[in-house]
Amino acid sequence: MISVCIATYNGAKYIREQLDSIVSQIGAADEIVICDDQSADDTLAIVAAYDDPRIRAYRNESNLGHVRNFEKAMSLSKGDYIFLSDQDDIWIPGRVQTMMSRLNENPSINLVASNFDLINAQGQAIGEFRQLGVAKTARLAQIGSIFLGKAPYFGCTFLMRRNLLRSCLPIPKGIESHDIWFALVASSIGTVLNLQEPTLLHRIHGSNVSVAKRRALLVVLRSRARFLWALALRLISFKLKSA
User: Fold this and answer.
1) pLDDT of 32-42, one tens digit each?
2) Taking CA atoms, which of 36, 49, 169, 171 is between 20 and 30 Å from 163?
């Protein structure tokens, strides 16, 4: 069973196009879990209009922010395979089949990520993102590349196994990016596969949660320190449970 987890917030402008690109690629027994973070527009009304039993939508009682909203959606999922999805992208036809087949090539692979193409608010092609290279075979090298920002992982490109989800949740407090957290844990306990081809169209517009801007070095270092500490604690907890 496949679960597609979507965190929405004021996504009425694009959510229909994204859902249309997803529902045609999943099976009758699969599900789409949507957690809405107190949208003030028609996002939930558009979702409800699908009248599709595979779609389960929840409205948060308070605004959680994008990391906790994704965490909630993932915690409510039931599938053995979990895709993450932004509310404003478009999945390329064949994405599910391609990523599922690559994930199942090797049982040690617990996360598949990919590159993507870029579109603007009107859906017009504006470029390509090909900065995610082949994952490092050495575990420490792979983790180091993530910490140094040389392996840019985007959660909207993720497909993971249920066992990775169990290992990553709950997301530690102070973690600002579920993308990096999942990539770090996945690289620490299993194998990550980076697809060089694009699997989705990533929309760039004025309301994106993630924006491309340079942060102060001290802010970046503090963030990385939180990730390192949280990862160390999580790995220690795994060792204690297995002892």
Assistant:
1) 999 999 999 99
2) 36
